[in-house]
Amino acid sequence: MDTEEDMSEFLMPIDKEKDSSESALCGRKLPLWLGLLLLLVAVGLLVPMIYFAVIANSKACVDGLQAQKECQEVNQHVQRQLTQAQELLNKKEAEAATCKQAVVTLRDSLKKEQARVEELQGELASLNQQLPDALTKERRKSEASAEDNGSVWFFMLLMCTFIICKCLKK
């Protein structure tokens, strides 16, 4: 046995202090109740973990996750459509505002034109009232002028006759 101890010294140097602390720890045994408690805790944690792993991978859970994913995709699609509809609505509201402004401008122009038409109708009515008076005055002028023209013609005829008579006497 001496030779074995002597041989072990050559193979591995022995630290006496380290050897004594290891033998002190190894020499102590874990109390049975503490071992059982640790075993119960390990089993108590392992069983729910296995249970939840089985439930998480169950068909209902997988289907639920798939349904949630599909729901999120549909939600995103609907959100995009809503955004597009909102943009279109804003565009159409801007166009409507432009149209309303055009309508206001056209109404103002129409009112001005109606006022001008009424003014011109008033002038036309006034001129229509003055027309008979002007025609009467013009007719009287024409008649007076015709009388003056008749006497001028008579005078000219008389002169021509006189001139012809004188020429014949000679």
TrEMBL record:
Recorded superkingdom: Eukaryota
TM region positions: 32-54
Annotated keywords: Coiled coil, Membrane, Transmembrane, Transmembrane helix
GO MF assignments: metalloendopeptidase inhibitor activity
Entries under InterPro entries matching the protein: BST2
Coiled coil spans: 71-137
Pfam families: BST2
Gene3D superfamilies associated with the record: 1.20.5.1700
GO cellular component: cell surface; Golgi apparatus
Protein's GO biological process: defense response to virus; innate immune response
Database matches in PANTHER family: BONE MARROW STROMAL ANTIGEN 2
Protein's UniProt name: Bone marrow stromal antigen 2-like
Organism: Bison bison bison
Gene name per UniProt: LOC104992673
